[in-house]
Amino acid sequence: xxxxxxxxxxxxxxxxxxxxxxxxxxxxxxxxxxxxxxxxxxxxxxxxxxxxxxxxxxxxxxxxxxxxxxxxxxxxxxxxxxxxxxxxxxxxxxxxxxxxxxxxxxxxxxxxxxxxxxxxxxxxxxxxxxxxxxxxxxxxxxxxxxxxxxxxxxxxxxxxxxxxxxxxxxxxxxxxxxxxxxxxxxxxxxxxxxxxxxxxxxxxxxxxxxxxxxxxxxxxxxxxxxxxxxxxxxxxxxxxxxxxxxxxxxxxxxxxxxxxxxxxxxxxxxxxxxxxxxxxxxxxxxxxxxxxxxxxxxxxxxxxxxxxxxxxxxxxxxxxxxxxxx
Length: 326
What we know:
Elements: E1 9-12, E2 15-18, H1 28-31, E3 43-48, E4 52-58, E5 65-68, E6 73-74, H2 85-97, E7 105-110, E8 125-132, E9 135-136, H3 140-145, E10 154-157, H4 162-170, E11 185-190, E12 195-200, H5 202-212, H6 223-231, H7 234-248, H8 260-279, H9 285-305, H10 312-325
Antiparallel strand pairs: 1-2, 3-10, 3-11, 4-5, 4-7, 5-6, 7-8, 8-9, 11-12
Helix pairs in contact: 6-9, 7-8, 8-9, 9-10
């Protein structure tokens, strides 16, 4: 684990793989009725660009920028040239003139990588998020704009008007490039809950298949994972933590894992078995128990290690972000 930077990483076979990476986000329809619209007066919608996920931070000690793709750090024997070079050179030049601040992770799209969409002429890097203290900040645009770095356009929308605006914006021309190409889609962000979701045009999916071929991997969520993600909420886990304390005499400790996952699973099925049976065809209950246990571990560790001053709403918001990353 890195002790001199805000990114946590693991090293396997000499390659650094990062923990604090921008999460793979689910489709809007997956989470719209769960917590995407909770606890907020408005949601942020931004254009989803057809580039390559790219991020960087200021290294303590050297003050230089460290860059990464979605999965690994660039440099140290890995390729920092080729299709990444334009974005790296562009950001290093900016950092020399108006240095980026430490203790932040800056996320954006590297637009010099291969695209499905033909944008024509575009900047080498376009920002879309900033993280600090394991939280994505709603004031992220300021970090880029004061350095002249382009950012994705954003719109604020009321929760009840979300889907109409999502569909409208997804079928308009991109804000970037010189060809007038229609947007790939949009990303929806709820900063209070730290929940993000995406909407991708069906036509873009077909264009992507033509450019890159059919995906050989399974979808991120199968039916079992969808059920666990939807019904194993932080609030449900918290309820069973209280049951273990009040009715079973447990202290707040990891030893609760002896009983917590099965209590949560029983509560999920007791309240939702008919809806689950109606909506999902292939549910592996053995696999679901493992996924529920994984969420319970995240939640207990958060209760034991995070400073949330008994603000349960804040705790649940942050744990929800961890669920998305897991």
